[in-house]
Amino acid sequence: MPTITTRTEIAAPPQRVWDVLTDFPGHQEWDPFFVRLEGTPRPGETLAVTIAPPGGKRMDFRPRVVELDAPHRLAWLGRLLVPGIFDGRHSFELSALPDGGTLLRHGERFSGVLTPFGRGMLARTTAGFETFNDALKKRCEQ
């Protein structure tokens, strides 16, 4: 099962990072990766998401929020057509650091019968996650 895992330390407390992360309308001001992020971060809610991977074309998704543990974890599940074809569980996990900062773990786990054909997009998507992480860090540390 292909997985993307990224980590970033942010010099801001978890609640600050959570507030910026879950302010979906505010992403338009600072986020170069999630160029559209609409909906409410609560379990069962369907979101409207458009990503802009570096060097790739924009992609639209309608994932469903599957986990919310404020201010620690947010996860959503996106699917191509029907379950089991190409699924992606996208997650953000925030952990407090001893210095008062936050460790962000941002990743996605892919599954489904078409997963082997999607491996080519992993590098661009990973770069997009890292671009997002850097932008979130900058925004939270202002």
Describe this structure in words.
There is one protein chain. Helix 1 crosses helix 2 (122-140). The model has no long low-confidence stretch (mean pLDDT 94). With 142 residues, the chain is α+β, with helices and mostly antiparallel strands. The strands form 2 sheets. It has a 5-stranded antiparallel beta sheet with strand order 1-8-7-6-5, covered by helices on one side. Strands 2-3-4 form a 3-stranded antiparallel beta sheet, with no helix packed on it. The protein has a single domain (3-140), classed as START domain (Alpha-D-Glucose-1,6-Bisphosphate, Chain A, domain 4), CATH 3.30.530. It is built from 2 helices and 8 strands; from the N terminus they run βαβββββββα. Strand 6 and strand 7 form a beta hairpin. It is globular, with a radius of gyration of 15 Å.
* Count of DSSP strands: 8
Shape: globular
CATH topology: Alpha-D-Glucose-1,6-Bisphosphate, Chain A, domain 4
Helix content: 10-25%
The proportion of residues in beta strands is 35-45%
Count of discrete alpha- or pi-helical segments spanning 4 or more residues:
2
Q: CATH superfamily, please?
A: START domain
CATH architecture: 2-Layer Sandwich
CA radius of gyration is 15 Å
SS-based structural class?
Answer: alpha+beta
Order of helices and strands: EHEEEEEEEH
Total discrete domains = 1
Q: Identify low-pLDDT runs.
A: none
For the biggest β-sheet, the strand order reads 1-8-7-6-5
CATH class: Alpha Beta
Largest sheet: 5 strands, antiparallel
- Mean pLDDT comes to 94
